[in-house]
Design brief:
two-stranded antiparallel sheet, about 30% helix, about 10% strand, about 80 residues
Length: about 80
């Protein structure tokens, strides 16, 4: 917008952003609570078996907690 000269009609915003995509935010299951807990405290929930702990660690590799929100890094290295 700051590049629009005085008197010039603005163009369609979507034309200037060809890679714009809408991401859907949805809650899928309670397993993400365990991932957030693990990432923030580095401890697994009580009652987890050794196998469940290993699966949680492997699953948590794809996630980051930023300002209290869980984000997943995609195969294209974009946070979602």
């Amino acid at each position: 917008m700051s590049r629009i000269k005085m008197g010039e009609d603005p163009t369609n915003l979507e034309e200037g952003l060809p890679d714009v995509q809408l991401f859907i935010v949805r809650i899928t299951n309670r397993h993400f609570e365990d991932i957030i807990h693990f990432l923030m405290t580095r401890t697994t929930p009580k009652g987890y078996t050794t196998q469940q702990k290993k699966e949680l660690v492997v699953c948590a590799i794809e996630f980051f907690v930023i300002v209290g929100h869980l984000h997943k890094i995609g195969f294209d290295e974009v946070l979602r």
